[in-house]
Amino acid sequence: MGRPIKKLFIGNRNSTGIGGEGVASVTLGGTNNSTGYTTGDAVTFSAPQLPGGTTATGTVVATAGVIDSITIVTAGSGYTSAPTVTAGTGTIGTLTLTAVLTTGTTNAIAILAYVPGGSSAVAGDINSQKGSKTYNVTTAQGTGECVLVASAIPTEGQMNITATDSAGGTYYVKKLTNRTVTLLPGTGSQFAEDEQVAWGDTAVLNTSVSITN
Fold first, then answer.
1. For the chain, what percent of residues have pLDDT higher than 70?
2. Of 5, 46, 156, 172, which sees the most CB atoms within 10 A?
3. Per-residue pLDDT tens digits for 35-44
4. Under 8 Å CB-to-CB from 130, ≥6 apart: which residues?
């Protein structure tokens, strides 16, 4: 099977036992004409995308009914994209609340997988490596073995991993090893099909790609 990927990159890498990220902060945008809020009012975050994740919680800081900021009470876990934020106690007006995810809390590789017996391809975690292209994975639809494919939408028993170059171009990973990936270009143009490229958290121009975690 060649050199397997390190356990560092396989599922459950952060303190809460699930891949993805938590919520670091909430930014305020638009025109702040919010009214009717009191410091301590709860804000609501949407649920995380990864199975086993926990939903973030937070509260309002307000002056004379106007939201000044949002305090993160618990960051949550398992987010692969920023959740929506709702402050329902008062009237939000044209103020916008945007969650910002933490970075570096996990090294676990983000995947899209269609586990056997599931109904679609959804985000998940790698539990273990079974072969050069076969992994045991868990999604919200169950746990099972999936084969790594270079495809935008995996079918049943398949999974994909997406890599990104320094210009934001994307590639599908055809094979993953501890140090390199074999790529199929999507929107990216820095690397050719079947080229073996170094990978990590940061992409370097014409040298390496990053893989989302």
1. 86
2. 172
3. 999 999 999 9
4. 136, 145
The overall pTM is greater than 0.85: no
Q: How far apart are CA 149 and CA 166, in angstroms?
A: 23
Residue whose token pair is 């992409």: 203
Using CA atoms, how far apart are residues 171 and 193, in angstroms rounded to an integer?
9
Output b/e per residue, 135-149; b: 16+ Cβ within 10 A. Answer: bbbbbbbebbbbebb
Virtual CA dihedral for 104, 138, 160, 180, nearest 10 degrees? 50
Same domain, 138 and 94: no
With cut-offs at 50, 70 and 90, classify the pLDDT of residue 126.
Answer: confident
Residue 65 and residue 27 share a domain: yes
- Distance CA(112)–CA(153), nearest Å, equals 8
Pairing mode of beta strands 180-185, 170-176? antiparallel
Q: What is the pLDDT, as a whole number, of residue 128?
A: 80
Structural domain for 135, as ranges: 7-12+107-211
Is residue 79 one of the residues assigned to a domain? Answer: yes
Q: Is 9 helix (H, G, I), strand (E, B) or coil?
A: helix
DSSP class of 149: -
What does the pLDDT read at residue 18? 53
- Bridge-based pairing of strands 170-176 and 134-139 is unpaired
State the amino acid at position 184 in one-letter form.
L
DSSP state of 55: -
